């Protein structure tokens, strides 16, 4: 089986499959986030502007992190630094610039949407977009596979010799699983057991869980299928994955404490009685 073409021609124009995949992924993320905001009563007139800034910040940050992690290669061939159509975008690098950009933009353009609430709403969007992006991005780019393998599931990738572990497909499945978990957590928190809505509750559980799960995924995947001894980029990705996991735990611990305090205070706007009596002696029920 031949590798999937990484580019094709429309007349004299060369079109890179990797770029098309990223464009489709960004469009999907925009539409899905717009739908989630509208369903919860938030205005979305600011969303287009935010996505433009986020896309630029994500690409710049992702490329910069990749180049720094592979500085030896790009020092020898500086012309390749801007050749993003050949692949080479670091997810963590993209997040480092894109997330602060989005937070600042939302605070300015939509102050009624708090940062914790916005992060909870966007977490499933990111997981779903990463799942799609793995298939429409790295799966279709130059050198998109992992370690060599002779197993039946191995695939061929452009510029890589022999069959490779299809890491993008594996990560797509993992990211979609994370998406399902985050949606399940969100739905459980949004409703009391009798189906009535919870309102005014502390936010942060969804994004915290996403950080923990994705940190584990990236660390394990990099360690098992992508890392090479002494490769700085691989070590940095694993370190970033561990840091994201720790940061997620740091988010979840106070969120759990705030939930308990919220329930003990009578859950303003909610119906704590359906979860059972809440007393200082017995403690708050788990949300």
Descriptive key words:
287 residues; mainly alpha; 3% strand; globular; disordered C terminus
Give a nutshell description of this structure:
It is built from 8 helices and 2 strands, in the order ββαααααααα.
Description:
Helix 5 packs antiparallel against helix 6 (167-190) and helix 6 (167-190) runs antiparallel to helix 7 (205-226). The model is unreliable at 272-287 (pLDDT under 50). A two-stranded antiparallel ribbon has the order 1-2. The protein has helices at 17-39, 47-69, 71-76, 91-109, 115-136, 167-190, 205-226, 232-264, and strands at residues 7-10, 13-16. It has 8 helices and 2 strands.
Count up the helices. 8
Helix/strand/pairing class, anyone? mainly alpha
| Overall average residue pLDDT | 83
Q: State the end-to-end distance.
A: 50 Å
Tell me the major beta sheet: 2 strands, antiparallel
Q: What is the topological layout?
A:
Layout: E1 7-10, E2 13-16, H1 17-39, H2 47-69, H3 71-76, H4 91-109, H5 115-136, H6 167-190, H7 205-226, H8 232-264
Antiparallel strand pairs: 1-2
Helix pairs in contact: 1-5, 2-4, 5-6, 5-7, 6-7, 7-8
